[in-house]
Amino acid sequence: MVKMTLIARVTDGLPLAEGLDDGRDLPDSDMYKQQVKSLFKNLSRGHNEASRMSVETGPYIFHYIIEGRVCYLTMCDRSYPKKLAFQYLEDLKNEFERVNGPNIETAARPYAFIKFDTFIQKTKKLYQDTRTQRNIAKLNDELYEVHQIMTRNVQEVLGVGEKLDQVSEMSSRLTSESRVYADKAKDLNRQALIRKWAPVAIVLGVVFLLFWVKNKLW
Amino acid sequence: MNTENRNFPARPPPPPFSSSPFASAPPPGVVPPQSGGPEAVGFRPPARPFTPSGPHMAQPAGVMRPAGQPPLVSQLPGSRPPPPSFPSTAYGPPGGGSFHRFPTPPPSGVPPPPQTLAGHLSPPMSFRPQQPMASVTMGPPPQSMTSGIPGGFASPSGPGFQQSMPGGPQPSYPGYPSNQVLQGPPKPFQSPSQGPPSAVSSYPPQTGGFAQHPGQQNMHPSYAPPPTSNVQGLVEDFNSLSLSNIPGSLEPGFDHTSFPRPLDGDVEPSSFAEAYPMNCHSRYLRLTTNAIPNSQSLASRWHLPLGAVVCPLAEAPEGEEVPLIDFGSSGIIRCRRCRTYVNPYVTFTDSGRKWRCNICSMLNEVPGEYFSHLDATGRRMDLDQRLELTKGSVEIIAPTEYMVRPPMPPIYFFLIDVSFSATKSGMLEVATQTIKSCLDNLPGYPRTQIGFITYDSTLHFYNMKSSLSQPQMMVVSDLDDIFVPLPDDLLVNLSESRNVVEAFLDSLPLMFQNNVNVESAFGPALKAAYMVMNQLGGKLLIFQNSLPSLGVGRLKLRGDDPRVYGTDKEYTLRVAEDTFYKQMAADCTKFQIGINVYAFSDKYTDIASLGTLAKYTGGQVYYYPGFQSSIHGDKLRHELARDLTRETAWESVMRIRCGKGIRFSSYHGNFMLRSTDLLALPAVDCDKAYAMQLTLEETLLTTQTVYFQVALLYTASCGERRIRVHTAVAPVVTDLGEMYRQADTGSIVSVYTRLAIEKTLSSKLDDARNVIQQKIVKALREYRNLNAVQHRLGSRLIYPESLKFLPLYGLAIGKSTPLQGGPADASLDERCAAGFTMMALPVKKLLKLLYPSLFRVDEWLLKPSADFDDLKDVLRRLPLAAESLDSRGLYIYDDGFRLVLWFGRMLSPDIAKNLLGADFAAELSRVTLQEQENGMSKKLMRLIKKVRENDPSYHPMCFLVRQGEQPREGFLLLRHLIEDQMGGSTSYVDWVLQLHRQIQQNA
């Protein structure tokens, strides 16, 4: 069963449309939406992802397709047939490109095609029940192959970006720390020098002072 | 101060003024009255020195003066009208007009000469320059003129004024005509050289102002210009009513026709807007005073409320729409610390790389995309393209960060009572017809959603799935455990299910035609609606016809017990009885559901409880007592259509920010406060205004100016998330007099009305009225003390020019429906409904309701000319007193909610016949006004239509009443003539005397 549907532009992760009343009776829909958003962000950062992918998250699974720089994503129950989910996304894609195709690149504000939500809503209902004649027919349709679509875990997917970030962060931290180290070493050196010669210098100074005072007095 | 800087250059070189050349050479640029604002400042100081010479010049040759004077006077228009507005009708009774007695010799004595010229001038001079529009003080030079011939008070401005008049557009003298009462008997007004006729003809609309006093115009000629006309004592900062005969009888003591009356409606201090052209328009934000006190001690001496009235979505006239701005990739530019939006008052520094926030003076980086070089004067090169840096009001497209979910579609959900009374009164039919006719105009096509629940003793849900041809009805009779029988399709997309919805609306009245059920399961129905709507939110319209009697939220007939009235428990009747309502309202707000309540019953329906729903969800209450479709049908049709089709802002929140050291401490209106300063408004539109009060947090403000920024984040019906930002600035002053001068009566009255209505929810009506009275007394007493030192006040009631209408509006608040009289004067429901309505009204609308307009139309109807150009003439407002009504006339009373046509007893039968057709002699309560086949009737109907179109937010219903037709006449009209004494209430005259006495008590 389709839980939520989002459409976003891959180039900058800008959300273009979203299903209406998504997340109904979903206790932690906010968390999943957050995951979707970071997923989009990952995609927009240009990690080369397959154009079709399934991502597991908790009891649900995200399916998405990327086509024409637009990502169509839906979240379903794990038990929901993958085949139907992808057909649903195909349907959305075809309609979305037909209606909004030329304007996708120029859209500037978020949810610029929010009007599309009525279509999402309608299509969703068609796919709601897996046992309708229509859906069974689709399931049996051998033409549409989904076996080779990769399934990964959401932590993994989101992790890729995170790990890269971590590495670069670490290396930058390393450089800055080493610079600090060099500075500190220099400083210590100077201090050691001072510590070594300061007493001598002071004693000499006192002696000279005494000489000078003596000369002056007499 | 920036205004000063701006103004000084504009000031014409002083020399011409200082000597007689002045008279002969009026500075050319100054003459047009429009230029008043800025010029005023420039002018003033020079004018002072000039005054001494004034007498000499003017005395010998009255003719000369006019030539020289116009500049002086020309300042008036833009800014406040000068105190000595000659027109005040009071002059009428030359002898008896103790009213303006100010310097009239006998009673109050000759103008107090103790003040020498120099002494006088200095104080005004010292602060004048600070204020951009001090024109108030402008007009007449200081009183101290030794030659001060008492009579010559208002003189200089008088003639000059007339002169400049014809040249300048009249509108620019807005406040002028209102007959404020002035101290000086302005005899020179009619100085022959100017010729009275010209004066009269030159301001038709204005004369309307004083016309209350019929024959006043005729009197003008009788004023011979006193020999030394122009000497008028000091520049008074205030107006006064001379009430010297107080202890005695009212009668000839003074002339109450000259009391100030807002016959021109709401006059905004326009000079302020001129001084700060980048401020947002006053229709969006109005401060109670355009001068913010610099210290807490000063603020505490200003006894009037310190605050603002905000109407964030006010309708803008064509061509002045708020521009829409998209910041694109740079993101919205806001201050990092205080989150202020970029606005015209921020300053760019560091060759354009940084900008300084005007509210918290924090230095912020300018993002790369937004960078622009500065020119030599420090202005951005691209200033002309950046509307957000030049306009006080802008609308910004919000990026994703401002959304917690995708923008919601407009949703309208209807909760309709279908019990016996609803069908019998015809409400059901009118409502369904109206909804059907509005389907095409609902905002937000094609996303708009719509749904219905009806209820009597059971709940009826309707499945309106687009694939059905007829809606399916589902009945739920279990009221204790409400459930929604279908997961979806109760709320459907209108464009898809259009046919089903139409079929439903057609069949609904028929379905319940013979319903005899009289119960009302309102509470459970509300819960069900909430369950259907809470996914997305939207607007819930409730049509309630009787007292909720079943299930949760059932209400008792508590208004019936007469013993409660007058006791300390009285107020409990005006607050919600059951916490269920407040709780539901809170839940609804949380899920972005805004509720509008339409109540129709002729019996008690506990609007106090039902209205709570609207109050806390930012909605409003429409009340049609004793609804009959034949009578109220039109009103419901228009108001429901307006409600459905006006541009609405969804899921919005509003916040107002202000500079350091001050803080908005309380908010008044219909909304829910989400945190200390965030107003949650599930559905807000152009007809809603909110009042708020300020407090000073720091003992001393060091800044020169204070900035205010209103930000409303909302979803437009088209699915765009937007932020509407209004920015305004006000100077900080150290002088109490300046605060009074810059006061805005309309805004103050709005705040007071809301405070008074809130007060009725916790105490007796009497107490609420007294609170307002005390506040006004305190404010005026303070003002009196302020001026008592300089001037001999005698027994005059003095008030600043800017607040001249405050006493009258104070009286009007006490006589408004929510506060008037005792329990017998208005039914509990009417009171509460009016209270909820008035809490949300914008300033102009509220002022009109408080002091409705009354005008005479029979003469206009008889005039053959059919054109409408003279409409302004017709709509000349008269004072709201029974003596304005001439039994030979036909009058229209219009408070924005009702139109009452009053037929005088001696009105020519022809008119009545023409207007009412055959049944002109019948009892008017049964007659409705319809267009007849004759010119006169058509003319009247056009006029009424015009009046209605002027303000579409409510549809004023037309009532006809004949003089002497009791009790209808009293109920419809006489009771609303607020200047008269009715029952236990005071008349305007008594009220002023009462105020005056109280002011003097501790003065």
UniProtKB/TrEMBL annotation, chain A:
On whether Translocase is a keyword of this UniProt record, the answer is no
Cite the InterPro entries for this sequence.
Longin-like_dom_sf (IPR011012), Longin_dom (IPR010908), Sec22 (IPR044565), V_SNARE_CC (IPR042855)
Which keywords does this chain's UniProt record carry? Coiled coil, Endoplasmic reticulum, Golgi apparatus, Membrane, Protein transport, Transmembrane, Transmembrane helix, Transport
Q: What is its main location?
A: endoplasmic reticulum
Q: Where in the cell is it found?
A: Endoplasmic reticulum membrane; Golgi apparatus membrane
Q: Which residues form the Longin domain?
A: 6-120
Question: Transmembrane ranges?
Answer: 193-213
The biological processes this protein is annotated with in GO are: endoplasmic reticulum to Golgi vesicle-mediated transport; protein transport; retrograde vesicle-mediated transport, Golgi to endoplasmic reticulum
Q: Which family does it belong to?
A: Belongs to the synaptobrevin family.
Q: What is this protein called?
A: Longin domain-containing protein
UniProtKB/TrEMBL annotation, chain B:
Disordered: annotated segments: 1-233
GO CC field: COPII vesicle coat
Task: Give start-end positions of Pro residues composition bias.
Answer: 10-31, 103-115
Q: Domain of life of the organism in this record?
A: Eukaryota
Q: Low complexity bias located where?
A: 152-167
Task: List each copy of the Sec23/Sec24 beta-sandwich domain by range.
Answer: 649-732
**Boundaries of every Gelsolin-like domain copy:** 878-944
**Could you state one GO biological process linked to this protein?**
endoplasmic reticulum to Golgi vesicle-mediated transport
**Domain Sec23/Sec24 helical, residue spans:** 744-847
Query: Protein name, please?
Result: Protein transport protein Sec24-like At3g07100
Q: Which organism is it from?
A: Brassica campestris (Field mustard)
